[in-house]
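Hi,

Apologies if this is the wrong queue. I'm a grad student, and the batch job for SHSP domain-containing protein from Priestia koreensis produced an output file that my downstream script rejects. I'm not sure whether the problem is my script or the file. Here is the sequence I used:
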Amino acid sequence: MMNDRKRPKNHFLHDLEDLVDFFFSHPFTSYLDCDSVRIDLFETSTSYIVEVDLPDFDKDHVIIEVFEHQLRIQAKKEQLVKLEDSTNNSFSAQKDVKLIDRTVDFPFSLPNQPMKATLENGVLEITIEKEGKVSPPISTLAITEW
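Support response: The file is valid. Your script probably expects a header line. Output copied below for reference.
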């Protein structure tokens, strides 16, 4: 009789196998990237480029603050979900808040560097020019149209 029973599937081992498969199929991706915001940094001959994945956000939801050696990227989106049950004459509302707050460090001073930001298809792109200076120093960076 005991042999006729099916063994319960060990979910821990299944999850561990998925993690190992994910790691080896994406060796340069951190497992934490699945639950956090992905940020990529690039350097060209004339600029530094920061790309941030912000799906489901538009430019009105994003604030970019410029500090001495840091960029702080905040995105906040609130959504109110209303449910009405006519059979029980009840009404409920749920507020869904999605918040992202990331800081990117740089080895040079940022406030006087020329920079621009665009947001298209859920990707925020911040371009920091290597040459040139702006005055007065920048404290917040507006997102311009693509």
